[in-house]
């Protein structure tokens, strides 16, 4: 019963709305479970982090560091930004692998408290201990504030943000269920360069907007055409896109609606889970990593594929490649899920479609004793291992 | 207590403030609130901005006087702890000061520029590249990087490339003057000064046209090298005082207001006219008009809080000045009289348009 109370309230933080941006911690809860994904957190050590899950282990918030003061670590190979009077290193998981490894090594030594070694998954995550949180930048409250500013006092960028929100609200999702994040919220955007980053609260609301956008018309709304996606594919070669032919890439991207253009500015929609709709609880199962595999299967459920982490429910899961490893599996158990932490693989496949994925195979044993397999794409450790070049999720489209 | 003017301070309740002097009372920082969250108090007479995820009012002292008065009265109720009465005044004018307990963060212009200059140029946007290049150019004057700072939106990170100004801080009055001499003689393909027409446009704003003779004003502004364009972006250079060169020390004097009056006189020293608060030393001051209580005051100093009056007059120039007349009693030394222009409360009264300092005659006696 106690756990349920915590879930219903979200995180058990006392909010002080008279404080600076967002809310400031007054008392630190001992445990926590839900905390919205894609929210910015400043830490007492001067990091700015982005939450990387809606579900979190006790005492921590799973994050991806976004900016780290240059003075803290040697950032060779990473980009620098001048933010909040400081030279910050923009932490990028796609930086050159060896340099990223060196950076992470330093990070682990200097800031071990920001690494959460998870007993359940036997893997590690970047995480902010609750007592290291300085400010949480509230995306929902930020949009509410923005919407109350007279239009005459808004610059071109913020005017666009409001027009986009007005368009999204035509889907039937109220503006109360939307938020702004990243530079849009922090005010360090550059018109013409910065994306507009919108948060949609609630998975149902997320799908409602994504479905609405399939047919929505607005003079400023533009989706990349096939030839634009093809050009993008050629210009932005990544480890993810390397698994796709140009044609496959275009076919996957053309039907997604989480990223578009509004009056020439890129916008991205991040759907986050409400406390009552999380698809897993952090400590509800044990996960045994077995090795890198490529599997195929048929998607039975894509409802959770627009959140981070998200998943595709599958049937007829079959291992087609063990990448040179001898992965022992119990053939009586099913491969039930493909779990995804990587945004480019969100909404990649729909129910009924054949899916192929490469990632870390895990044997899942729930606290109730149920066993099944899942494949996870995009764990942090993948970016500094051989899996970085191997992992993907692809539908037969 | 010393804290550099033009630094920025954010408070625990979300205000963004600009440090408004180099000398401060113990445990407090004198400031001008720049952005104030609109949740507790707000005014449609003031512009709004969306900064740091909040709707804020920008405190513009040049909006409608009555509405400004109403807003500041509400401010005093909502944020009574930021209103400060200076004990050395018989009756203190309005000051804003942040108690130490309310400070969230102090943004240092000097640290900011040092951090900025350490970033590889490839990782900078156009605005920041321009600043780095400008600082490199200014360093040709012989000043060191530690003598520079950057402030306002560039420091706080909410600048708009192609729209925001470049605001440079120079630490130390001597350094600032030497930089001004360097700029007088400098040539750079990307450096230009305001044209007659641009100064004319500037002259027409606020109440300048009501006070100054146009030709003298524009001529005087031409000689200021603290404001110009670099790569077509407006730059403004501010001086701040090092602790050992402050022209007054906190608590070393007490003040008594005598009234409001106009005086004429000749500037004998303008070395401290580059800072805020700044001052001019005056000789041969003569009462022109105003309250009787001020008639026999021998004015020897003009103090101002508005940066508009920085470097406006040079030694040997005859000026006319109107403001609040104060009797000054130093702890050590002789009593004297000064005229003060630009206390915050002047913006809520008729004094806003009637206080001024203008050059009547230049050193050659040209009117």
Q: How is this fold's topology laid out?
A:
The complex is a heterodimer of chains A (397) and B (367).
Chain A: H1 2-9, E1 23-24, E2 40-43, E3 48-51, E4 60-69, E5 79-83, E6 86-90, H2 97-110, E7 115-118, E8 123-129, E9 133-137, H3 139-147, H4 156-169, E10 178-180, H5 183-186, E11 196-201, H6 203-215, E12 221-222, H7 226-235, H8 246-254, E13 259-262, E14 265-272, E15 285-301, E16 310-321, E17 335-340, E18 354-366, E19 371-377, H9 387-390, E20 392-395
Parallel strand pairs in A: 11-14, 17-19
Antiparallel strand pairs in A: 1-9, 2-3, 2-9, 3-4, 4-6, 4-8, 5-6, 7-8, 10-11, 12-13, 13-14, 15-16, 15-18, 16-17, 18-19, 18-20
Helix pairs in contact in A: 7-8
Chain B: E1 8-11, E2 16-19, E3 28-37, E4 48-51, E5 54-58, H1 65-78, E6 83-84, E7 95-99, E8 103-107, H2 109-117, H3 126-138, E9 148-150, H4 153-156, E10 166-171, H5 173-185, E11 191-192, H6 196-204, H7 208-211, H8 214-222, E12 227-230, E13 233-240, E14 253-269, E15 278-290, E16 299-304, E17 318-330, E18 336-341, H9 351-354, E19 356-361
